[in-house]
Design goal:
Helix content is 79%, strand content 0%. It contains 14 helices and no strands.
Length: 255
């Protein structure tokens, strides 16, 4: 066993780099898998390390078929690695194999040993499977279940936020986006600014210029490049006879 320790230390470094590069695409599954790898490093056999490393290499390079082959072989050696199955399911979904993705993620939910966070992520992944397959109501149910299990589950929060945006439920979308921004410091501010802008437009339609102005100003405060908000603010200031302020906002767009 001692002779394997140096190779496993190197493998851990390689896995860390691979997961860092693949983290956005594979998401929570890769992060959990890295934590598992570090925790149980002494129990990892050489075949599993090789298969998993090769699978992730193919994954990063966009070779989905090869990634699925190697990761499936790795999964046969360690059926207890939850993150590995989450990645496999996501790969099947990316290839349009929705039935397989649903089967993999549904299979995870049948396991008794999952933590609440793992079960929540499996529900969120299943929701993405259903949504991509066009099964919208089942997707909603899965995302809602994910949030019941873990109110901080970002994939589920983002998915439900997208539904609210599509349905123009601006107040609900605003609440969700504010939660997402608090949880994800890397989140770009543009979606939040867009929501404030749309709320401002709703108030304009209701001839509530005061609330409209307030929300357009919030949109600009969040992201100064929210150009529609500058246009509408300029129109509102022009309507009030405040020509200088109106021109300032219109010129901001030209600048």
């Amino acid at each position: 066993m001692e002779s394997l320790l140096p190779s496993f230390s190197f493998a851990t470094l390689g896995i860390g780099l691979a997961l860092g590069a693949a983290g956005f695409a594979a998401g929570w599954g890769t992060a959990q898998l890295l934590r598992w790898w570090r925790r149980d490093e002494a129990d990892i056999n050489e075949d599993f390390a090789r298969l998993y490393s090769e699978g992730i290499t193919h994954f990063i390079a966009g070779r989905r078929d090869e990634a699925i082959t190697e990761l499936t072989r790795a999964a046969r050696l360690r059926t207890d690695v939850i993150g590995l199955y989450l990645i496999l399911g996501d790969l099947y979904r990316a290839k349009g194999l929705f039935d397989r993705a649903i089967r993999v993620h549904s299979g995870l939910l049948g396991r008794q040993e999952l933590t609440r966070a793992e079960r929540a992520q499996a529900c969120a992944s299943l929701g993405e499977d259903f949504k991509t397959a066009g099964l919208v109501e089942r997707a909603r149910e899965s995302f809602a279940k994910a949030l019941e299990l873990d109110s901080r589950n970002l994939p589920a929060l983002r998915a439900i936020s997208r539904f609210c945006l599509e349905e123009r439920q601006w107040d609900k979308a605003l609440e969700l986006e504010e939660r997402i921004v608090r949880l994800d410091r890397t989140r770009r501010s543009r979606p939040l600014a867009f929501i404030y802008n749309e709320i401002g437009r709703e108030y304009m339609r209701q001839d509530d210029d005061r609330q409209a102005t307030r929300n357009f100003q919030k949109a600009i405060a969040v992201d100064d490049c929210t150009f529609p908000a500058h246009i509408f603010l300029g129109d509102l200031f022009y309507k009030e006879g405040k020509l200088k302020k109106a021109v300032e906002h219109w010129e901001r767009i030209v600048d």
